[in-house]
Amino acid sequence: MAVLVGKKAPAFKAEAVINGSEMVENYSLDQFVGKKNVVLFFYPADFTFVCPTEIIAFQDKIEEFEKRNVQVIGVSVDSAFSHWKWLQTDKKEGGIKGVKFPLVADNAMTISENYDVLAGEYDYNEEGQMVFEGTPMAYRGLFLIDKEGVVRHQVVNDMPLGRSVDETLRMIDALQFFEENGEVCPANWHAGDEGLVASQEGISEYLGKRG
C-alpha cells in the first residue's frame, strides 16, 4: 500500500455527477488548488450496503465541511450513469437521493490504481491472457488534500469496515489549526484544545499542564 502523505495527490480527469443530477466530463481536482481543502474518498460500489451509510453520513455533515471550506468528493469504479441512477433512487429503496456532493466515475479503475486502493491488479495467466486478480473495486480509502494539492492524511479500510465522518472532521480541524497557528496537535486533539510547540520545551510544558 502506497503512502501518499506529503506527496502531490494523483491527478485525474473523469466523468462525475454533481449536485445530485448533473453529469459532467473532465471533472478534476485542479479547480480546488489554491481555493479549498479536499476530502477524496473511495468506496467499493453503488447499490451496496455499507456504502450508502457512509455517503449519506457525509451528506448529513456537509454543512460542517462547507463551514471549513472543504470539498467532499466520492469515487467508485461505477459508471457516471450508475451514480446518476443511484442518486435518483429513494433511500427507502436503497438509494442515496438527496446527496449533492460530486461522485466520480472510475470505471477504468485508473484513479483507484493511482491512489493504490484498488483491491486487486491485472496480471497475465499461463495462456498469456490479461486477467484481473482480486476484487475489481476500491477499498474504503480516504485522502485529505490541502490547498496546494498535497495529501496530508490518508486512511484505508477494508470493505466491510465503515469510516467515521467525525474523525474526518477532526483531522481537518487539526490540519487547519496547524496551518493557522503553527502548533502541532497531540493525541486525541479536538477543536478548542490547546496545541503544542514542536520542541522538547513545548512538549514538557504541554505535559506539565496535563499533570
UniProtKB/TrEMBL annotation:
TM spans, by residue? none
Instruction: Indicate the residues that form the catalytic site.
Output: C51
Start and end of every Thioredoxin domain? 3-177
Q: Name one GO cellular component term.
A: cytosol
- InterPro entries in the record, alphabetically? AhpC/TSA, Peroxiredoxin, Peroxiredoxin_AhpC-typ, Peroxiredoxin_C, Thioredoxin-like_sf, Thioredoxin_domain
Q: One of this protein's GO BP terms?
A: cellular response to stress
**What keyword terms does UniProt attach to this protein?**
Cytoplasm, Disulfide bond, Oxidoreductase, Peroxidase, Redox-active center
A Pfam family cross-referenced in the UniProt record is 1-cysPrx_C
Question: What PROSITE patterns does the record point to?
Answer: THIOREDOXIN_2
CDD domains in the cross-refs = PRX_Typ2cys
* GO MF assignments: thioredoxin peroxidase activity
**Source species, domain of life:** Bacteria
Location comes to: Cytoplasm
Keyword Lipid biosynthesis in the entry? The reply is no
Give the protein's biological function.
Answer: Thiol-specific peroxidase that catalyzes the reduction of hydrogen peroxide and organic hydroperoxides to water and alcohols, respectively. Plays a role in cell protection against oxidative stress by detoxifying peroxides.
**PANTHER family in alphabetical order:** THIOREDOXIN PEROXIDASE (PTHR10681), THIOREDOXIN-DEPENDENT PEROXIDE REDUCTASE, MITOCHONDRIAL (PTHR10681:SF128)
Task: Give the protein family.
Answer: Belongs to the peroxiredoxin family. AhpC/Prx1 subfamily.
- What protein is this chain from? Thioredoxin peroxidase
Task: Tell me the classification of the organism that encodes this protein.
Answer: Bacteria, Pseudomonadati, Bacteroidota, Bacteroidia, Marinilabiliales
